[in-house]
Amino acid sequence: MSTEIERKFRVTGTAWRTVDGQRICQGYLNRDKHRTVRVRLAGVQAFLTIKGVTTGATRAEFEYAIPVADAEALLALCDGPLIDKVRHRVEHGGLLWEVDEFLGDNAGLVVAEVELASEDQPVTLPPWVTEEVTTDSRYFNSSLATHPFNRWDPSKDR
After folding, report:
1. 103 and 84 in contact (C-beta within 8 Å)?
2. d(CA 98, CA 42)
3. What is the pLDDT of residues 77-89, one digit of tens each?
4. 90-144 pLDDT, tens digit each
5. Which residues contact 71 (CB under 8 A, 6 or more apart)?
6. For a FRET experiment, which of 91, 98, 109, 110 has its CA 20 to 30 Å from that of 84?
7. Cβ count near 37 (within 10 Å)
């Protein structure tokens, strides 16, 4: 079984913007509390990903490359709106950080993720990250598809 251990943080400023990003479009074929099934177009590549329940910063993850034409057809079958974002890969503290700059209904939201070998792996935080949102389900991409950032109540959700 493949396991993903990932921590997620809100991002401030633009100091992280040191490299060009890659446009990503993704949608969900299944989003329930036990699993998500996602299809993603990232440049000239496409993937089908199944993720299990998140416990702490860990969850089962299975990802498979699929033909771009299949991904385009699957995106049309997705449940709910699609997620549109630009992903920037930034090295900091010996780790690769993926900074997602959301577009469309999630414009204004920027989130950084870092994958780890274990949940207790030490992480040197970049100066451009703010609060940790690893366990806050509002920041899951599957949640942002149905409850986008531009609909959050600033007095409660931010």
Report:
1. yes
2. 14
3. 998 899 999 999 9
4. 999 999 999 999 999 999 999 999 999 999 999 999 999 999 999 999 999 999 9
5. 39, 40, 41, 46, 47, 48
6. 91
7. 19
> Tokens 């446009």 map to which residue?
23
* Topology of the domain covering 3-151: Hypothetical Protein Pfu-838710-001 (2.40.320)
Closest residue by Cα to residue 9 from 120, 145, 117, 100: 100
**Cβ-Cβ contacts under 8 Å for 80 (sequence gap 6 or more):** 27, 28, 31, 145, 146
Domains of the chain, residue spans: 3-151
Give pTM, 2 decimals: 0.92
For the question of residue 139 being annotated catalytic, the response is no
Torsion of CA 59, 116, 96, 36, to 10 degrees: 0
Q: In which residue are the tokens 């400023």 written?
A: 13
Q: How many CB atoms lie within 10 A of CB 140?
A: 16
Catalytic residue among 16, 28, 139, 149: 28
The Cα 129–Cα 102 span in angstroms is: 16
